[in-house]
């Protein structure tokens, strides 16, 4: 029910995914009448792989997480996460309020043993490839131990994705020399150096786009600012490009000629292809779609949910944590 | 003497500035033989507005600031800052080691009363304009009071530049709702709200490129990551654009047609036009040029030095601090 467009986007995307993967089941959670209508509008037939799970409430996009947790026990978000908890679903995908989703998922599903806090991880394009980055906003302040846990969780996700068998792990910092950074980052560097992760050192904001790490680890404040700044610059350049091509008759003619090239560029950088952030560290799969996702983008988020459920990412993270902490794992 | 190219870039840029501003004097600081040769190569005649100040040492680009401060007392950097201290120069412009420049400037010139730490401030393009951002890396950890001091200093610079009479001051944060952010940011928001600065609230990384603030304030860690991430994305898009236009004969033909448009875009975003970061909070003008600056870029940094000396920015910041702290200013 969540996101800026609600079921008009999520329902058609769900139907497309169901069609694409013949071995999955899909549970739509939300207001029954609205969902039934959305299914009708989308021209859905009866399908025993598709079920409806009613929920009478909706968490607002700007609602405080604590409010949602307390007063919205029958929200589509809460009921969807409950489905994962009860084992009726293997993944929950939502375009709703990020803070409320994180708080509810953490409350209902709990974190894995050894994980203090879940983190938000997403995929970002870079020269000749892509990398993953976490945390992107769940944790404003992080200790070195948190950053280390993020590195373990993110590495498992990169490995499962097939991008790298030994993911290169970098720590986001304001310089690449050893003396640079705050205490948390310096201590996290030590923890990573002493671990069996493939730690490649500090990574600066510009260098992460040069394909020097498969995983960039940072606190949620810095990660959020870095990701959004990147999106902001890309949007500005795109707007400037449009303006320059619309300047006069000559530039408009040039635009027509350059159109296939500009389209190819757009395809390469289309944020919709990267939609879907993983909430890692929970005892279950939860994927957050961008609130403004259209159908194509929401399908990508659903694909991530399918992928993480198939690969049993939480279980694999749990196993890896067992190895990392070798019997000394905190509960 | 500093930067990646040394006098082969800085000397021709200095001569160009001297030509452009008939009322300024210029002191070139560094190895006498090297500078004399560079002047000769650049075809400089005798000019009583141009003097040479010998310095026998050079601070390396990767030298630790503490080392530079201790063992390089006759470096071009130190001697140039000494020129400002003694009153023989009104501004120091350097393309050298940022950390060493900041440490030396702070040691020699001292901070203004009421300023705990100097900060690095630069100009960044945004939709339909530009904004300034500080700190960009001088201060890894900042208290709310530091952030507030940055806001005061940055506001003076924006006002003097003529961009805005009442600069809109925003705090960089991972959300725009009041509950978002870490303790320092939340407390700084309170200080700004209670001040007579034109505080416009929290600014997210993407929104700062939409021209919603004239000044974006943050700690040096976050600011550095945000700025470099932005530069990294812009470089990646530029590289992708080149690749797409070079893909085949057709796209190469399109590139020829689109060339004037692409050139116009480049002009609008050319980082060389924004070169030169101000070290604010000192009792003197110090401007840091990008180490990789070419002549055009270094001229911009020199222009900033001329501007800040003419506008007596340190004096204006000092006056404003007097108003802000109204008699209760710490020494």
TrEMBL record, chains A, B:
Top EC class of this enzyme: transferase
Pathway: Lipid metabolism; phospholipid metabolism
Any one GO CC term of the record: cytoplasm
Catalytic reaction list: a fatty acyl-[ACP] + phosphate = an acyl phosphate + holo-[ACP]
Enzyme Commission number(s) from the entry: 2.3.1.274
Source domain of life: Bacteria
GO molecular function annotations of the record: phosphate:acyl-[acyl carrier protein] acyltransferase activity
Pfam families: FA_synthesis (PF02504)
Alphabetized UniProt keyword annotations: Acyltransferase, Cytoplasm, Lipid biosynthesis, Lipid metabolism, Phospholipid biosynthesis, Phospholipid metabolism, Transferase
Gene Ontology biological process terms from the UniProt entry: fatty acid biosynthetic process; phospholipid biosynthetic process
InterPro entries: FA_synthesis, Phospholipid_synth_PlsX-like
NCBIfam families: plsX
Sequence similarity: Belongs to the PlsX family.
Quaternary organization: Homodimer. Probably interacts with PlsY.
Cited function: Catalyzes the reversible formation of acyl-phosphate (acyl-PO(4)) from acyl-[acyl-carrier-protein] (acyl-ACP). This enzyme utilizes acyl-ACP as fatty acyl donor, but not acyl-CoA.
Official protein name in the record: Phosphate acyltransferase
Species: Spiribacter salinus M19-40
């Amino acid at each position: 029910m969540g996101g800026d467009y609600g079921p008009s986007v999520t329902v058609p995307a769900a139907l497309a995914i169901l069609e694409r993967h013949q071995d999955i089941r899909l549970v739509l959670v939300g207001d029954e009448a609205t969902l039934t209508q959305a299914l009708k509008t989308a021209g859905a037939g009866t399908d025993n792989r598709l079920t409806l799970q009613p929920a009478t409430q909706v968490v607002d996009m700007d609602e405080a997480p604590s409010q949602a947790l307390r007063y919205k026990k029958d929200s589509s978000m809460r009921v969807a996460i409950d489905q994962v908890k009860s084992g009726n679903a293997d993944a929950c995908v939502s375009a709703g309020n990020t803070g409320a989703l994180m708080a509810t998922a953490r409350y209902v599903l709990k974190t894995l043993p050894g994980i203090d806090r879940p983190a938000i991880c997403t995929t970002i394009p870079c020269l000749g490839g892509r990398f993953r980055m976490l945390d992107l906003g769940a944790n404003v302040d992080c200790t070195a131990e948190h950053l280390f846990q993020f590195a373990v969780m993110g590495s498992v996700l990169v490995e499962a994705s097939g991008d790298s068998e030994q993911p290169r792990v970098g720590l986001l910092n304001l310089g690449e020399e050893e003396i640079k950074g705050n205490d948390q980052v310096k201590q996290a560097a030590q923890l990573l150096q002493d671990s069996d992760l493939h730690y490649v050192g500090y990574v600066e904001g510009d260098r992460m786009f040069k394909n020097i790490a498969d995983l960039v680890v940072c606190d949620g404040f810095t990660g959020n600012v870095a990701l959004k700044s990147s999106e902001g610059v890309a949007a500005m350049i795109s707007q400037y490009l449009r303006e320059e091509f619309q300047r006069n008759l000559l530039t408009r003619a040039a635009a027509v000629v350059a159109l296939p090239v500009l389209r190819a560029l757009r395809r390469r950088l289309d944020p919709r292809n990267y939609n879907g952030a993983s909430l890692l560290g929970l005892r279950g799969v939860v994927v957050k779609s961008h609130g403004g996702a259209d159908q194509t983008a929401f399908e990508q988020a659903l694909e991530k949910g399918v992928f993480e459920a198939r690969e049993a990412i939480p279980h694999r993270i749990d196993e890896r944590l067992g190895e990392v902490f070798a019997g000394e794992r905190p509960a």
